[in-house]
């Protein structure tokens, strides 16, 4: 069996010191294969966002290792971490985090600019259903469209790993399904590995891997043999 | 129970230290410098105004060619005044290593009139003792106990003093600039005064009106009566100066008043800029705190409670800044500010006077402005609903930032353009901030070259190597016999007791002097070469007054009667009765060609209506030119009247008849003097301006970075390097700063021109703004260098924007 694309061993993270010390992640070990969609479930405060920050190279780990592809993240300095994010990663946030005074196209261009081999923007806009809205500003489009734009921005670099932090958390049912369908399509079309952090238990059915965190510990890691298409999900 | 929000205040202060520190320093600097200066200047103004009473300063003085007899003095006193003789002579002073050509105006120890104030030492008591002016001593490093040669006699300096009627060392009231470097007043004992050669003794008389509160018009009228009384008694009046026109008394005071106007203008501009900064900072705070405000409002907090909360910190910072600014102004800066004047002028000992007007202007106004702008800004923003705050919908998106940009523009350029458009209002404020800072920078930098330029231009106004101003027409082209006859007459006049002359010699003197034709002009008793005589040119001079364009004061205009086709004034056309006016006079008094203008002779009260056919000379030329023939006709003089010689070769003239000699070098020397006195102001201004400029740019550009903190954080998460982010954000700011530095130059030049004109409305002469190309470059370079430091701070700030900011929930 080949090595997992995302390989995490003994990952630890805490905040504060002494009596105020809080163990946010404790000895997490897991592996995610290339091209998998992985859903990370857990209640608030379970360490989901911290996990994502660590994998995204936004925060240093206190212990353990993270390897993404051939890159050992925990060995990298700040400058190399930037290169790693630039080369490997796409981020999708719950509240889209679009630059408010850039148009839809320009927001996507922000990340296109970083890649030596970006995806063609026009094609991406069409596949995201944003072609009609490409000249609009974030405040002129709906939440779903903003999230599509954010996904487009993450994808345009053609990343190997897409990290999504509650991507449907701010959306209604219908729009959430549209976004998840889009992710499903992206995974199929571009073959990137996707990690989705969510509260929503129903989303797990679209994933190849389902991880569960509680109080900083990995309490569940199961392969989903019966992956459902998003259109069949309900909640 | 006190508001729990108070606990936020120290944290808010800590988190926004740059912003509040900048605001605090801006207030401290502005208040410290303006209050320090205005307090010093207003205190000096008060000292100056009280001097008339405190030191019994004259109402005016006059000088006669020869000593006035008792009848003449009585005739003058009958007009309604007391006359006090205060004779003096100007005599050379030198010591080892002294400058060349130093002259002392020597008086006898004075009593109750035009009193003396001793700053160090005491009044001379022995024949070999002398006291000199304080500023002169300071400029020449003269100390008590030093030995000097006064009129060739060795004297010891025993006193360093200030003469109340020579606060400013003008050797001649008609001089444009004072001279505390090679001219001084001096006091000696009566015995010493008599012992020194009195060849050039000036019979000067101070007068005090019986009614010292006489209105100026009445005093001038009385003074005209005095001149008439003296003439009736056969006295030749060589000088007559009303105290209001006496530059030695008033110049320093006018300077202190005029400078106050300049500082008030600067303060007003500073207040406007501070207002801009406060608006920007308040808006930025509300925008930043939008979600918090929304949450608090949604939780039941009242708007006024929140307004009070958000006003607390700016108010505390403002009050602290005002207190510290005043403390620094009154204790530290008042001394250098006072020295700006005391290094140039011989004022009596300084004391600080509390001035409510200054306090209101420098402290209350900026504070009220800070409070009201913050309050109005908060009130305006608080009109939004809690939901609008929660949704961050309080900042109206400007049409500009939402406009479409052509896609053919490179992404990076488009991004920078977006940054620019999004922060347009901040950049507009930045432009004004830069303009204000640059104005002060340029003013400070331009001052020295301006003085140089002024001196060079003024030197061109002296068309010959020597301009001899005479007390009476003295002919140089005379025969040896004529010279002999006048020499004999002079000996007779200047001998107090004719019995002292040997009888034979006396007879020959009478015989020789009997040859003089009284209808002719006086003949020079000294011989000049035929070449010198051939190139010398006669001219006549009179001084008239006409109103200035700005202000309510009159400008003194020198009227020259010159030769038609003069070899010296060769660019002035005075043929066929034509008249020309100097460019400076024309501009300062708004006199155009063919526009008749009334001129006043303040001594006689006569008015003259003159009309000009051309404008000539430089911006410094404050003269009117006409032919000598026209001059004598206009001023009702004899056809052969004249009162000076223009000559490129030095002339031998009887010193008795020389009023003054003007050379181009003297005008260049003036530049040195002006630079000496202005250099400190220019330096002080630069010291004040550079930190001010820095803070302004820092505060105004910081808001741009702060507003973009979240976007910067996104960029970092996406994989942008710090230097790439800096390029995107900092370059927009850099470009704006550089463009502003250059674009505001035409406005600055116009503004400086206005300021200089406004300042000069208090002074005589015409000084117009002149900025050397190098000065522009210096100003831009200094502005850019200051910004460079700010940019480094911003780059550091960008590096410090946390990655986690992007991950934080925004709504």
Major sheet of chain B: order of its strands?
A: 20-17-21-16-15-22-12-23
As residue ranges, the low-confidence spans of chain A are: none
Question: What structural category characterises the helix and strand content of chain B?
Answer: alpha+beta
The whole-angstrom Rg of chain B is 34 Å
> Hey, which two chains have the biggest interface?
A-B, 39 and 29 residues
Task: List the quaternary state of the chains.
Answer: heterodimer
Secondary structure: helix percent of chain B? 40-55%
Total beta strands of chain B: 23
Binned, the helix content of chain A reads 25-40%
Ends distance of chain B? 30 Å
Q: Can you summarize the main beta sheet of chain B? A: 8 strands, mixed
β-sheet strand percentage of chain A:
25-35%
Number of helix segments of chain B?
24
In the CATH hierarchy, what is the class of chain A? Alpha Beta
CATH topology of chain A: Rossmann fold
**Tally of separate domains of chain A:** 1
Describe this structure in words.
The complex is a heterodimer of chains A (235) and B (811). Chain A is built from six helices and ten strands; from the N terminus they run βββαββαβαααβαβββ. With 235 residues, chain A is of the alpha/beta class. Chain A has one domain: Rossmann fold, CATH 3.40.50. In chain A, the strands form two sheets. In chain A, strands 6-7-8-3-9-10 form a six-stranded mixed β-sheet. A four-stranded antiparallel β-sheet of chain A has the order 2-1-4-5, covered by helices on one side. Chain A is globular, with a radius of gyration of 17 Å. The model of chain A has no long low-confidence stretch (mean pLDDT 89). Chain B is α+β, with helices and mostly antiparallel strands and 811 residues long. Chain B has four domains: 4-46 and 264-452 and 671-807, no CATH class; 54-250, no CATH class; 463-474 and 526-662, no CATH class; 479-523, no CATH class. Chain B is 52% helix and 15% strand. In chain B, the strands form five sheets. An eight-stranded mixed β-sheet of chain B has the order 20-17-21-16-15-22-12-23. A six-stranded mixed beta barrel of chain B has the order 3-4-9-6-8-7. The longest helix of chain B has 44 residues, at 664-707. Chain B is elongated, with a radius of gyration of 34 Å. At the A-B interface, helix 1, helix 2 and helix 3 of A face helix 12, helix 20 and helix 24 of B.
């Amino acid at each position: 069996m080949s090595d997992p694309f995302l390989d995490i061993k003994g990952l630890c993270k805490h905040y504060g010191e002494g009596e105020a010390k809080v163990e946010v992640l404790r000895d997490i070990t897991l592996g995610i294969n290339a091209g998998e969609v992985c859903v990370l479930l857990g209640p608030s405060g379970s360490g989901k966002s911290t996990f994502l920050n660590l994998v995204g190279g936004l925060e240093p780990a206190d212990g353990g290792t993270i390897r993404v592809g051939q890159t050992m993240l925990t060995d990298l300095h700040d400058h190399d971490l930037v290169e790693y994010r630039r080369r490997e990663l796409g981020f999708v946030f719950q509240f889209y985090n679009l630059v408010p005074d850039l148009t839809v196209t320009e927001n996507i261009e922000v990340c296109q600019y970083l890649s030596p081999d970006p995806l063609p923007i026009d094609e991406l806009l069409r596949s995201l259903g944003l072609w009609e809205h490409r000249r609009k500003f974030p405040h002129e489009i709906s939440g779903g469209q903003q999230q599509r734009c954010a996904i487009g921005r993450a994808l345009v670099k053609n990343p190997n790993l897409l990290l999504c932090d509650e991507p449907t958390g701010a959306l209604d049912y219908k729009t959430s399904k549209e976004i998840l369908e889009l992710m499903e399509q992206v995974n199929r079309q571009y073959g990137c590995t996707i990690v989705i952090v969510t509260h929503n238990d129903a989303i797990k059915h679209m994933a190849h891997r389902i991880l569960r965190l509680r109080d900083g510990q990995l309490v569940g890691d199961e392969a989903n043999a019966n992956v459902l298409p998003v259109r069949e999900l309900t909640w | 129970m006190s508001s729990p929000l108070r606990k936020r205040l120290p944290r808010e202060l800590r988190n926004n230290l740059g912003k509040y520190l900048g605001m605090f320093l801006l207030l401290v600097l502005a208040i410290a410098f303006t209050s320090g200066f205005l307090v010093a200047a207003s205190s000096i103004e008060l000292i100056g105004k009280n001097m008339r009473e405190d030191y019994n300063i004259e109402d005016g003085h006059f000088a006669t060619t020869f000593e006035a007899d008792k009848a003449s003095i009585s005739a003058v006193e009958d007009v309604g005044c007391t006359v006090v003789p205060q004779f003096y002579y100007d005599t050379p002073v030198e010591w080892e290593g002294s400058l060349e050509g130093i002259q002392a105006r020597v008086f006898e120890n004075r009593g109750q009139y035009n009193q003396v104030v001793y700053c160090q030492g005491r009044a001379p008591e022995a024949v070999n003792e002398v006291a000199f002016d304080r500023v002169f001593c300071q400029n020449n490093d003269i100390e008590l106990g030093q030995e000097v040669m006064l009129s060739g006699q060795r004297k010891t300096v025993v006193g360093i003093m200030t003469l109340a009627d020579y606060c400013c060392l003008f050797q001649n009231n008609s001089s444009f600039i004072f001279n505390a470097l090679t001219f001084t007043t001096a006091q000696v004992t009566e015995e010493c005064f008599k012992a020194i050669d009195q060849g050039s003794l000036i019979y000067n008389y101070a007068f005090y009106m019986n009614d010292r509160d006489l209105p100026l018009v009445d005093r001038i009228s009385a003074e005209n009566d005095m001149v008439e009384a003296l003439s009736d008694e056969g006295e030749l009046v060589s000088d007559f100066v009303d105290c209001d026109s006496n530059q030695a008394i008033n110049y320093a005071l006018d300077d202190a008043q005029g400078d106050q106007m300049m500082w008030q203008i600067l303060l007003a501009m500073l207040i406007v800029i501070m207002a801009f900064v406060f608006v920007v900072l308040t808006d930025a705070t509300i925008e930043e705190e939008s979600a918090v405000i929304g949450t608090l409002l949604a939780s039941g907090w009242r708007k006024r409670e929140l307004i009070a909360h958000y006003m607390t910190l700016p108010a505390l910072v403002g009050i602290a800044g005002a207190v510290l600014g005043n403390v620094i102004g009154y204790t530290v800066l008042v001394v250098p500010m006072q020295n700006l004047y005391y290094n140039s002028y011989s004022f009596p000992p300084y004391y600080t006077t509390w001035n409510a007007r200054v306090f209101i202007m420098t402290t209350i106004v900026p504070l009220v402005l800070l409070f009201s702008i913050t309050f109005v800004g908060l009130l305006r923003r608080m009109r939004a609903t809690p939901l609008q705050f929660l949704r961050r919908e309080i900042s109206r998106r400007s049409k500009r930032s939402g406009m479409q940009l052509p896609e053919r523009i490179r992404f990076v350029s488009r991004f920078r353009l977006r940054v620019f458009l999004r922060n347009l209002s901040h950049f507009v404020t930045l432009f004004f901030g830069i303009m204000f800072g640059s104005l002060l920078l340029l003013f400070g930098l331009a001052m020295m070259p301006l003085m140089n330029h002024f001196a060079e231009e003024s030197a061109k106004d002296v068309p010959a190597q020597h301009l001899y101003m005479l007390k009476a027409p003295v002919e140089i082209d005379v025969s040896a016999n004529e010279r002999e006859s006048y020499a004999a007459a002079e000996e007779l006049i200047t001998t107090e007791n004719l019995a002292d002359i040997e009888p034979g010699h006396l007879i020959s003197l009478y015989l020789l002097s009997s040859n003089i034709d009284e209808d002719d002009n006086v003949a020079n008793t000294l011989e000049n070469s035929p070449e010198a005589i051939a190139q010398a040119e006669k001219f006549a001079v009179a001084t008239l007054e006409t109103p200035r364009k700005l202000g309510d004061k009159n400008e003194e205009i020198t009227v020259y009667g010159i030769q038609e086709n003069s070899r010296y004034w060769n660019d002035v056309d005075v043929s066929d009765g034509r008249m020309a006016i100097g460019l400076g006079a024309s501009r300062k008094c708004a006199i155009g060609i063919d526009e008749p203008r009334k001129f006043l002779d303040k001594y006689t009260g006569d008015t003259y209506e003159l009309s000009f056919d051309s404008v000539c000379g430089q911006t410094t030329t404050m003269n009117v030119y006409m032919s000598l023939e026209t001059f004598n006709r206009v001023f009702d003089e004899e056809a052969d009247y004249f009162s000076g010689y223009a000559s490129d070769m030095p002339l031998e003239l009887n010193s008795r008849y020389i009023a003054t000699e003007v050379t181009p070098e003297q005008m260049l020397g003036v530049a040195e003097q002006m630079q000496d006195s202005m250099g400190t102001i220019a330096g002080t201004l630069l010291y004040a301006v550079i930190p001010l400029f820095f803070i302004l740019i820092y505060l105004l550009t910081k808001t741009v970075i702060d507003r973009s903190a979240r976007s910067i954080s996104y960029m970092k998460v996406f994989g942008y390097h710090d230097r790439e982010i800096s390029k995107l954000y900092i370059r927009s700011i850099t470009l704006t700063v550089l463009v502003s530095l250059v674009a505001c130059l035409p406005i600055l030049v116009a503004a400086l021109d206005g300021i200089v004109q406004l300042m000069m409305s208090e002074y005589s002469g015409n000084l117009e703004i002149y900025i050397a190309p190098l000065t522009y470059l210096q100003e831009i370079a200094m502005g850019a260098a200051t910004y460079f430091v700010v940019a480094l701070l911003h780059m550091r700030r960008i590096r410090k924007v946390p990655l986690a900011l992007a991950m934080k929930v925004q709504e």
